[in-house]
Every structure is written in C-alpha cells, then in structure tokens.
From TrEMBL:
Entry keyword set: Cell inner membrane, Cell membrane, Membrane, Transmembrane, Transmembrane helix, Transport
Alphabetized InterPro entries for the sequence: Sulf_transp_TsuA/YedE
Transmembrane domains' residue ranges: 38-57, 69-90, 96-116, 148-165, 196-215, 248-266, 287-306, 312-335
Annotated organism of origin: Cryobacterium fucosi
GO cellular component assignments: plasma membrane
Lineage of source species: Bacteria, Bacillati, Actinomycetota, Actinomycetes, Micrococcales
Subcellular location: Cell inner membrane
Keyword Ribonucleoprotein: no
Membrane protein topology class: Multi-pass membrane protein
Annotated protein name in UniProt: YeeE/YedE family protein
Family: Belongs to the TsuA/YedE (TC 9.B.102) family.
Listed PANTHER family: INNER MEMBRANE PROTEIN YEDE, SULPHUR TRANSPORT DOMAIN-CONTAINING PROTEIN
Length: 353
C-alpha cells in the first residue's frame, strides 16, 4: 500500500510541472499586479477537496479529529515560510518539482528545506519549536468555533470560489500565444505539449488531494497531502537508516520529484541550469527558513494552506493569511522595492527650466 504514495506523488509532480502550478507566484501576484487568477486556482483545489473530505468523513472512510490550535507558532511560522518562499523561488512542492526540472538553485533550496525541517522537528531546534507550539487555545476548526455544520462553510466556500472562477473565465480571452507546430499527437500531445490551463490543473490536483486521504489512511498515516513531515523523515532516514521512518508520505515526496522529472523530460523542458551567486545564497537561505517556518506553523502551503483549509482548520486558514503577508513582505523587500530603486536611478535627470 505504501507504493500508492509513490504513484500519487508521481501524478502530482507531473501535474504541477506541466500546469506550472506555482503557489509562490499566486501569492506574489497579489502584491505585484493584484491578479487573483492563480490564487483562484489554488482555492479551487481547497474547495473541491473540502467537498470530498467531508463526504468521506460523513461516510466513515476517514475521521477528522479536533486538535488544539497552536496560534503563536502558526502565525510566526507561516509568516517566516511566506517570506522564505520568495527567497527560495518556490514553496515546498514548487521546490520539489523545479528540482525535477534541473534547476540547481531549487536543489539547494530543497536540501536545506528538508535539512532544517528535520532539525526543527527532531533535532537541535526541536525544543524551541515544541515550546512555541505548546502555546495553544482549545479550538481547532472554524465551524466548531462558530457552532455550525461544516457543510454550511463548504457551500459558502464553493460558491465564493465558483464566482471567482467565473469572473476570470468571463474576461476577454488573451491574444493567442504563438506556438511551434505540434510534434506529438494524441495522448502524448495532451500530456507533454498542449498548454495546461490554471483551472483544469487545479481540478486534477484537487482529485489527487482527495485520493490522498483514503490512500494514506489505509497505511496508518491519518492525514492527506503533506510535504514537510515526510521531507524531515526522509532526512532522518538517510542519516539514521531507520526503515520505520519510510511511510506513505516519504513515498509521496519522492514521487513528486520523480513525476516532475518525467514531465520535464517528456516535454523537453529538463535542463540543468546553474544559478548565479546571489540566487544560490537566496535559495539556501530561503530553503532553511522554509524548513523552520513550516515546522513552526505545522505545515507548508500544502499541509496547511491547501489541506487543513479544506477541513476549515484554524491552523490552515491562519497560515494561509500569514503566508500571504510574509510573501508580501519579501516581495516588497526583494522584488518591487529594489526594482523601483533601480528604475529611479536609471531615470535621466532633466535640466530645470
């Protein structure tokens, strides 16, 4: 059954690479252009998954158990994580699939992300992380806090996301993009050459996210998609060699890397690309901060912002908000701020009248 994690991971990595599903870009677009298209795609995953998760819970296939909300660690960790993904050039899954494309900068980010996640969960930083996560309130979900049926929130979420998607789909289509003649046909063309849309990619990812719940539970891992914990476990396995650390989640992250490599190779997009010195330093620093931030927050953009939000967990929605804020702070510092300063310095000074 563990191999189902590998299979689902391959499908997820393949889909994210071909669809260019970048959560970092979705958050960053809000601050640079105000565009919500990719954020809407991300929320489609959350909304569709939410329907599937609560249906499975109602059917007894899984059991959603409450847990206390580690509010302080979640806020700090989510902000740090959101800040870090701009430095690293991608979130946890984005780093995995870009590493599969041959981006050496993402290799550095991925290595240090997994290493610092392990250090934060079971290593030298664990006491500090555990101490912050011990600061909790006795609440776990939005519907539990409000005393509502979760299906009311599901209906609100699906309706809101549906209206957002309709808004984007109703806008005037962009000018056609020039493309080379197709070299493949049939399924090969669809999988490796045809441009994947943001919303269609989101629907595929949503289906995979739903499937992750029963497949993971069947192996004793009572959770859905998750990246940080498995990445930490993989590092600990490589260091200590304990085979009990290899669970469904570890197979999942290995599968994401494998699926991305298959997609990039099949589409001709795989190429080993070396970063410059500045990008290398930022990738390493961003990866390290991602590992610490995700451990503090209890999850990354997948485990928290995509999965826990689908169950209306307080940790998930608070994480999503502070990840976006953290991304905005880093964008202002490293993207829009320096760009404006550079543009201003290049503007010719006009002589006075």
């Amino acid at each position: 059954m563990l191999l189902t994690g590998l299979a689902l991971g391959i499908a997820l990595g393949f889909t994210m690479q071909r669809g260019r599903f970048c959560v970092t870009g979705a958050f960053r677009d809000l601050w640079i252009t105000g565009n919500t298209r990719w954020l809407t795609a991300f929320l489609i995953v959350v909304a569709v998954q939410s329907v599937g998760v609560f249906a499975m819970d109602a059917a007894g296939m899984i059991t959603l158990a409450p847990r206390d909300f580690a509010w302080l660690a979640t806020i700090i960790g989510a902000f740090v994580f959101g800040f870090a993904i701009v430095l690293a050039g991608g979130c946890a899954t984005g780093t995995y699939y870009r590493a599969g494309e041959g981006l050496v900068g993402s290799w550095f980010a991925l290595i240090f992300y997994a290493l610092f996640a392990a250090m934060s969960k079971t290593g030298v930083f664990a006491p500090a992380v555990d101490g912050l996560r011990a600061v909790t309130v006795h609440a776990s979900t939005i519907h539990g806090l409000l005393g509502l049926s979760p299906w009311i929130l599901v209906a609100v979420l699906v309706t809101g996301v549906g209206l957002l998607a309709r808004h984007h789909l109703a806008r005037r289509p962009a000018l056609p993009v020039a493309a080379l003649p197709a070299r493949k046909s049939g399924l090969a063309h669809l999988l490796f050459e045809k441009r994947w849309g943001a919303f269609s990619t989101a629907l595929v990812i949503a289906v995979l996210a739903i499937l992750a719940w029963p497949l993971s539970w069947a192996t004793g891992r009572e959770s859905g998609l998750g990246i940080t914990g498995p990445s930490s476990a993989l590092v600990n396995y490589l260091v200590g060699g304990d085979p009990q650390l290899i669970d469904w989640g570890v197979y999942l992250v290995v599968g994401i890397l494998t699926g991305s490599f298959i997609a990039a190779t099949g589409s001709g997009e795989f190429r080993v690309r070396l970063p410059d010195a500045v990008t290398t330093v930022r990738s390493i620093g961003g990866g390290a901060l991602m590992g610490v931030g995700a451990s503090l927050a209890g999850g990354c953009t997948i485990g928290n912002a995509m999965v826990d939000t689908a169950t209306f967990g307080l940790q998930g929605w608070v994480s999503l908000v502070f990840m976006i804020i953290g991304t905005g702070a880093a964008t202002r510092l490293f993207v829009t701020g320096p760009a404006k300063a550079t543009a201003a310095s290049l503007t010719p000074v006009r002589a006075g009248r």
